Amino acid sequence: MNSADLIIREARESDLPALIALFAADALGGHGDTTDPSAYEDYLRAFRTVQSSSNQALYAAELAGEVVGTFQAMITTTLNARGSSSMIIEAVQTRSDLRGQGIGAAMIEFCIAEAKSRGVRLVQLTSNAVRKDAHRFYERLGFKPTHLGFKMALK
User: Fold this and answer.
1) Parallel, antiparallel, or unpaired for β 6-10 and 85-94?
2) Is residue 79 a part of any domain in this protein?
3) Which of 18, 36, 74, 93 has the least C-beta neighbours within 10 A?
């Protein structure tokens, strides 16, 4: 893949079928994502919530007119660290047949550049503990595993 051919842009509602397919194809995620048409309204509602927020954005990576990757970026500001802002990257997915070709790296580099342009202090992300390949990938890009995360499922 020629990285010059990759377009990273904010996702559009018309991208939803391709984005949903990326998540549904993820066997490790365990989020219950599905391409079943009965679930579409759930995705549409979430898309519109993200789209209406000034502090978060959903992106699509496009190659030759096809959506081949996605990620979400959120900016949060806290009182600690003297009121600085952080970018949180979530839901990073690259189409499985195109992994290892620089798409994921381009998406993360896009996030880092966006964070720098906004004066953000820190870029962080979480990754499922079983995703050892993803951990190596993030470490190659300069991320450090500095914290231990905790979750509590409510649904």
Assistant:
1) unpaired
2) yes
3) 36
Q: Is residue 112 part of a domain?
A: yes
Residue 61's DSSP bridge partners are 8, 69
Segments forming the whole domain that contains residue 70: 3-140
The whole-angstrom separation of Cα 45 and Cα 14 is 14
Q: Output Rg (C-alpha) for the chain, integer angstroms.
A: 16
Q: Is residue 127 included in any domain, yes or no?
A: yes
Task: Report the 10 Å Cβ neighbour count for 124.
Answer: 13
Amino acid at position 124, single letter: Q
pLDDT digits (tens, 9 = 90+) for 9-54: 999 999 999 999 999 998 776 678 899 999 999 999 999 999 999 9
Q: What is the CATH number of the domain that holds 55?
A: 3.40.630.30
What one-character-per-residue DSSP string does the chain give? --GGGEEEEE--GGGHHHHHHHHHT-TTT-S-----GGGHHHHHHHHHHHHT-SSEEEEEEEETTEEEEEEEEEEEE-SHHHH-EEEEEEEEEE-GGGTTSSHHHHHHHHHHHHHHHTT-SEEEE---TT-HHHHHHHHHTT-------------
